Amino acid sequence: MQKKVATIGLVGFLAVDVALVALALRPSHPDGAGAPAATPVASFTTPGASGATGSTKTPAATPSSGTTATSDAPTGPKPAPVTEIVGALDATTAWRATTGSCDKGGSTLLVTSDGGKTWDKVKAPARSVSRVQPLAADRVFAIGAGSSCDLKQYASNDLGATWQAGTSVSGGWARQLDKATDVLTPQDTRAQPCGASTDVIDLSRTSADEAQALCADGSVMVTEDGGQSWADDGSVKGGLALGNRIESNRLTTYVARVGGDCPGIDLVRVVKGKSLESVACVGTKVPSGAGQVGVSIVNAAGWIVAGDAVYSGNADLTKWKQR
Predict the structure, then answer these.
(1) pLDDT > 70? residue 121
(2) Is residue 10 included in any domain, yes or no?
(3) Residue 58 lies in a domain
(4) What is the pLDDT of residues 192-234, one digit of tens each?
(5) What is the reported pLDDT for 50?
(6) 52 lies in a domain?
């Protein structure tokens, strides 16, 4: 991990959507990335959603997958803003982060380059971290804050060994760390997708214009204009974390919850006006602490962090293994 630090500055952060290849040549534009087939889409906010190449059909032999979710009330921890983040590049490279807080600090970062077999701890670029997103095997950006809670963007070109100095966020997506109802968007630094009195549990973007927010009351809200306006996009009671990606040219929404017949994390597909579809039952234990479940859904895989446990899933999200 001891590589020379690239000196490319962070400029022109709000570029139009372009391919990930172009983005890889311009590390200063993480949220200006477009949506090519290989671009990752993470569960906490990510650049460049992509169309899934894996089949979304559910194998009949998997009893926990592709079934209509039960209407049982959620039995897990009360939904709270996510504090354990996972941001994936693909089935091999992923980052985990603990958000920490602006006043007390405590943010942590870990990265895997071998599919979760081993994790390396790296120094976080700020006291608190609201978002972490890999752009390539050794390139990553994060959005975080110091004691003032003023969000800044940071970039590393050596797998987190060193970080460029933080700069003002322009064109980015992230949850604000000082007020749980607020999110930073390209068009509004203090958007409130869930309303003025309802916390945002999680936020996931698919392009410079499109993103979704999971609300404490279970609502899923969507914006298609960079955060200027938000509309109802479904609901899942007890939702703990949100992930999405583009499948067959359509925004597809996944929410992690606890309840029904699943003893662990019930990953459901959410479609407005339709019953929840249980895609997979992941693991057998659920952390008791608030905000300790995170989701990242990318083109070739899915990742779920549940407290200290980490799980990765195949492209159609029906088969999962603990890492």
Answers:
(1) yes
(2) no
(3) yes
(4) 999 999 999 999 999 999 999 999 999 999 999 999 999 999 9
(5) 32
(6) yes
Burial class (CB in 10 A: 0-12, 13-18, 19+), 162: middle
How far is 207 from 214, CA to CA, in rounded Å?
A: 17
CATH number at 108 reads 2.120.10
Say if CB 161 and CB 3 are below 8 A apart.
Answer: yes
SS3 of the chain = CCCCCCCCCCCCCCCCCECHHHHHCCCCCHHHECCCCCCCCCCCCCCCCCECCCCCCCCCCCCCCCEECCCCCCCCCCCCCCCEEEEECCCCCEEEEECCECCCECCEEEEECCCCCCCEEECCCCCEEEEEEECCCCCEEEEEECCCCCCEEEEECCCCCCCCCCEECCCCCEECCCCCCCEECCCCCCECCCCCCCCEEEEEECCCCCEEEEECCCEEEEECCCCCCCEEEEECCCCCEEEEEEECCEEEEEEEEEECCEEEEEEEEECCCCCCEEEEEECCCCCCCCCCEEEEECCCCEEEEECCEEEEECCCCCCEEEC
Cα 267 vs. chain centroid, distance in angstroms? 14
Query: Does residue 109 surpass a pLDDT of 80?
Result: yes
Residue 147 contacts residue 118 (beta carbons within 8 Å): no
Query: Which stretch, 25-39, 225-239, 258-272, has highest mean pLDDT?
Result: 225-239
Structural domain of 231: 20-322
Q: Which residue has the higher pLDDT, 44 or 137?
A: 137
Considering Cα of 66, then 68, then 73, then 78, what sign does the dihedral take?
A: positive
9 belongs to a structural domain: no
CB under 8 Å to 46, separation ≥6 — which residues?
40, 87, 133, 204, 205, 296, 298
What's the total number of domains in the chain?
1
Is-contact 173 131, C-beta < 8 A? Answer: yes
CA distance 140 to 9: 14
